[in-house]
Design brief:
With 333 residues, the chain is α/β, with parallel strands linked by helices. It has helices at residues 9-21, 31-43, 54-63, 80-90, 104-115, 129-160, 171-188, 202-209, 211-226, 252-268, 295-311, 321-332, and strands at 23-27, 47-51, 68-72, 95-100, 120-123, 192-199, 234-239, 242-248, 271-273, 276-278, 282-288, 317-319. It is built from twelve helices and twelve strands. The chain is elongated, with a radius of gyration of 31 Å.
């Protein structure tokens, strides 16, 4: 049995329907014009508010999420052009419709407003409610399509920087992040470290258990390794069984400690893959930015350190020999 509506239920349903149609702000120094347009919009199912000038309009737009602004072109204080510019500055997604007279000069001004980004214009007095509501409906539809496209573009951008298998940021995201950190390091004279991680004997896992099982190992490893980093650091899927971390404000000593922490964490935590637990170890190469480094040379030295870790028996973290000598010489001073 349907529940009877309470005293406020009808109003709540009406407000929701109005929001679904769209929310509109009417700006005009004429109280009569505002009253007529607001009534037309509400009768058509829109949620409509009104203010009497441009300054009040911009204050309201900054606080309330409107879909459309209908503004008179000629007003004391801020005119329609200034309202249009303010809306595009404060809430660029909001569509603007211009109200103007029927004289040739007024129409010319309205066309100028279109060139400056207005959605459309309506002539005054707005006696034909259908013209107003259809124009507003098209503006609301345009805004929502633009917003949907923007969300889609953001999702695609995120996907282009995300590794499908592990959910970590991918090599492209790593390259961008490393270059940003290097630029920040140059500006603020702060250190930055890099760690390259390679799962030991991962080929055996694929050869013995198959690639699907190996994929699950990679996913489990990513979660364990990421848990060993600080909040301000980031782990990336570098490629294959290699991962990389960018360590913000970390000199060589701190970067090496972070790498050793990850190595120990992985060794102490067999990976859970389905019903199985898989013991895994990882080798790590560490480098910290030097004055003469760019991203390529920094990574080359981290790779050199990784090869050294493998040569020394794996399941360990090493730094490039030249950097270790530099650290030793600095400590001896």
């Amino acid at each position: 049995m349907r529940k009877p509506k309470g005293p406020g239920d009808g109003q709540t349903d009406g407000a929701a329907a109005a929001r679904a149609h769209g929310r509109v702000l009417v700006v005009d120094d004429s109280r009569l014009v505002r009253k007529v347009v607001v009534r037309q919009l509400r009768q058509a199912g829109f949620e409509a508010d009104d203010v009497d000038g441009g300054n009040a309009a911009l204050e309201r737009i900054a606080a309330v999420p409107y879909d459309v602004v209908i503004t008179d072109l000629r007003m004391p204080g801020l005119d329609g052009f200034e309202v249009l510019a303010g809306v595009k500055r404060v809430a660029p997604a909001v569509e603007v419709i211009i109200l103007t007279g029927t004289h040739a000069k007024d129409v010319g001004c309205a066309i100028r407003a279109l060139r400056l980004g207005a959605h459309d214009y309506l002539t005054k007095p707005p006696t034909h409610g259908e013209d107003v509501t259809l124009t507003v409906a098209r503006a609301v539809e345009k805004k929502r399509l633009n917003e949907a496209n923007q969300r889609l573009m953001q999702q695609l951008e995120l996907l282009s920087r995300t590794d499908d298998l592990t959910g970590l940021p991918n090599r492209r995201a790593f390259d961008e992040a490393l270059n940003r950190e290097i630029s920040r390091s140059r500006r603020h004279t702060q250190p930055v470290g890099v760690v390259i991680l390679d799962i030991d004997h991962f080929k055996r896992v694929n050869d013995t258990c198959g690639h699907p099982f190996g994929d699950q190992v990679l996913r489990a490893f990513a979660a364990v390794a990421a848990g060993g980093l600080r909040q301000e650091d980031s782990l990336y899927r570098y490629g294959g069984e290699e991962f990389a971390a960018v360590l913000s404000q970390a000199d060589l000593t701190r970067a090496l400690l972070a790498a050793k922490r990850i190595v120990a964490r992985v060794a102490a935590n067999p990976l859970s893959v389905g019903d199985a637990t898989v013991p895994v170890t990882v080798s790590a190469g560490v480098a910290a930015l030097r004055a003469q480094d760019d991203a390529e040379s920094l990574l080359a030295r981290a790779d050199e350190a990784l090869y050294r870790a493998k040569a020394e028996g794996r399941n360990r973290a090493c730094a490039a020999p030249a950097q270790l000598q530099l650290v030793a010489s600095q400590r001896s001073k």
